[in-house]
Amino acid sequence: MSTLAVDQAESLRRMLAPRVTRRIAVVASEPGAGATTIASGLAHALSMQGERVLLVDEDTAGHAVRLSGAEPAGTLADVQAGRLTLEAALGARPAGAVAVLPAGPARPRGAQSPDSLSGFRSVLLDAVTDADGALSALAGAAHNVLVVMRPEPASITAAYACIKRLHHLYACRHFHLLVNMAASEAAVLAIAGNLARTARQYLGVEISSAGWLPADPLVARSVQLGRCVVEAYPAAPATIALRQAASGIGAWPLRAEPAAPAAQAAVAA
C-alpha cells in the first residue's frame, strides 16, 4: 500500500474514533538519542494525516522550535497562567503548519492544565528529565511514553534504566520504543524483543515497538538547514519511516490519567 493510501486510511479512522487529545511524552534514553528529531518528525507526520497537532518543546535550548520554523509569541506556561491565549502564544504561522510552543518555566509539582490543549488531537512533548530523572507535570501525565534510543549497547542499557525509573515514578505499565539510526529492521526487532522480555520479567511492564529510523544523512542535512526532515525532504528514508510510525499511533492504548509520582505524593502528604 502506498504512503498516500496509508495516510488517507489513517485519517478516516481518526475522524471516526472517539475525540481524545492524546498526549505523548517523547523521552531520550540518553543525550543524543534523537528525541527532538523524533518528536518534531512525528508531529509533522501526524499533521500530514490531517490532525491538529501541538509540539511542546521542553528543552531550554529550543531545538524543536527552531526545527519547526515557528516563531511563537509566548510559552505554554504563559497560556496555563492565563497571561496569553493559546492562539496569541502560538503567534503567526502558515495555515496547516504544526503548532509549536516552548514549555516555559516549570509549573509547581503536580500542577497541570491539559484542558487548555483540548483543541488539538495530538500533543507531543519533546520531554526533558530533571536531575532525578523525573518528567515535567504535563509529560508525567501523558497518555503514552515513547522512549527513543540508538542501537548501541550503552543506549540499550540507558533505555532500560529510563524505563525502570519512569515505571517507579509514574507507575507506567506500557512503554513504546523507537530505535533511531538503525541499520536494519531485523536489528531493531532483536533489540526491542530483548528489552521487552527483560522489562516484562523484571519490571512487569510491557514494551511495544513504535518503529525505527534508518541512519539517514538527510536528517543531519535538514538540521543544518534548520528544518524538520519530514517537511524538508518528503521522500527521505527517515521521512517515510516517521510517517509509518505516525500511522500506528492511533492504535496505541491510552493510559489512564496517573497520580503524581511517588516522590511528589510523599512531599504533598
UniProtKB/TrEMBL annotation:
UniProt keyword annotations, A-Z: ATP-binding, Nucleotide-binding
Gene3D superfamilies recorded: P-loop containing nucleotide triphosphate hydrolases
Pfam families: CbiA (PF01656)
GO biological process, one term: negative regulation of cell division
InterPro entries to which the protein is assigned, alphabetical: CobQ/CobB/MinD/ParA_Nub-bd_dom (IPR002586), P-loop_NTPase (IPR027417), ParA/MinD_ATPase (IPR050625)
Annotated GO MF terms: ATP binding; ATP hydrolysis activity
Residue ranges of domain CobQ/CobB/MinD/ParA nucleotide binding in the record: 24-141
One Gene Ontology cellular component annotation held by this UniProt entry: cytosol
Protein name (database record): CobQ/CobB/MinD/ParA nucleotide binding domain-containing protein
